[in-house]
Design brief:
Elements lengths: L4 E7 L5 H14 L7 E7 L10 H7 L16 H6 L2 E4 L2 H10 L7 E3 L21 H27 L2
Parallel strand pairs: 1-2, 1-3, 3-4
């Protein structure tokens, strides 16, 4: 049994929202003294393999000193879902795609803005692709605000694995 608690963020192309959330989550968890107890990953429902994060996504993540420069996109797979303990879908359509791939992960899948409620209906995180840097900055700060609220619950889940 894998002792590492894996958190995965899922968006469409895995070059904006999910890597920004991955970067923000890593920054928050690094301050929690949970050495080697967790892994944070991201994927996309329509992602190709090996693409970098968008330049504006990389730039926006620097607000929190998150380094996304080495990010490589990856498609959402059944294997990634199986190994993930906590799955965040950026929108209801991403949530639906996750459940379509693997119904058995429904109990650990959350619409990003609904955590820790399991409701799959609700507000999604707006996709900044093709927008100005200011939109990416707003998206990153919104992600950070939600993750900051969720942090105590996420830390508890990591410690209880």
């Amino acid at each position: 049994m894998n002792k590492t608690f894996t958190i995965m963020f899922v968006c469409t192309g895995n070059t904006c929202r999910s890597p920004m959330a991955e970067g923000a989550m890593k920054v928050l968890l690094e301050k929690e003294n949970l050495k080697n107890k967790y892994e944070v990953i991201s994927s996309g429902t329509s992602a190709a393999t090996g693409f970098p994060a968008t330049l504006y996504g990389i730039e926006a993540a620097k607000i929190w000193d998150a380094d996304m420069s080495a990010h490589q996109s990856q498609p959402l797979t059944s294997e990634l879902l199986e190994k993930s303990d906590l799955i965040f879908a950026m929108t209801p359509s991403h949530f639906a795609e996750i459940i379509r791939l693997r119904k058995d992960v429904a109990d650990r899948t959350y619409l990003f803005k609904n955590f820790p409620d399991h409701a799959s209906i609700g507000e999604g995180l707006i996709d900044p692709i093709g927008q100005e840097l200011s939109v990416y900055n707003e998206t990153f700060l919104e992600i950070g605000e939600y993750l900051g609220k969720y942090l105590p619950e996420i830390v508890k889940r990591i410690e209880n694995k």
